[in-house]
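This section describes the prediction task in plain terms. A model, or a person checking by hand, is given the sequence of a single protein chain and must write out its three-dimensional structure as a string of tokens. No templates, partner chains or ligands are provided. The sample shown here is typical of the held-out split.
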Amino acid sequence: MACANAKQVEVHDPVMAKEGDTYYVFSTGPGITYYESKDMENWSLTGRVFPDEPSWAQRVAPGFNGHLWAPDVIEKDGKYYLYYSVSAFGKNTSAMGVTVNETLDPESEDYQWVDYGIMVQSVPHRDHWNAIDPAIVQDDDGTYWMSFGSFWDGLKLVKLDDDLVRLAEPQEWHTIAARPGASDNTSDPGEGAIEAPYIFKKNGYYYLFVSFDKCCRGMDSTYNIRVGRSKDVTGPYLDRDGKSLVEGGGTLVLEGNDDWVALGHNSAYTFEGKDYLVFHAYETADNAIQKLRILPMSWDDGWPVVDEADLNTRTTNLLEK
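The expected answer:
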């Protein structure tokens, strides 16, 4: 069974960044929870991005409970851009915003998050997509794009302005992945269980990681990680069998096992010349509590591979600061 010698880092929807010699993990939680580490194994709680909540959160989602969802963080020209979402669970009453800082280190005199507000909003009975799970990628031409979405009629890609805090004009949108089972009712997500896009550039390809099936159901969770690839950031993304992700394709990267009932909502990085897959996994021995996993990622004939055994050996320990 999985190692339980120390309290592990409990996160949902983790993303990472590195500033200097310090790694940071940001996750879904009150105000966006984040942690720091020198070695990617031993972590301490840093704090939260928002001490309260974005000023617009209650207006977008009247039932907002303080939890900001599924962040992504990137660095450009010495500034850090953190994207996040506000949503009502199971509804597309959602919006994504961005907040900017000159550093991730709260001990720095330059540390101050400046929120730029809503970038994209979805409204029930108007939009057949969901404005959650933002993730940013820069294409080979230097243009930045945001992938996002869940359920409904699939995952989207939209071009960003050079300032990274608004959409480019004229707007350019693409559907990059979808699954059968989306409802015709704009307020109903249907059974097309797909979410959490993340695009990772490697060896001339854009790799689109997605999560299939159900998260957040405890021991009933069925989450798993899939992938497709494209030579063009806008797609089409095809799996290893040549099936388009827009048509429900997706090559399995990793799924649950006896020790970990389910796992998903990944990001991917290259640190110090090595590739990593970062995600949360629900531990069977701990009542399906979600734990941070950072697994080495290798490549087989141009496709990402992680070792299932690393789920048990690559633990992440929470330390007292």
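For orientation: Residues 15-319 form a domain with the Tachylectin-2; Chain A fold (CATH 2.115.10.20).
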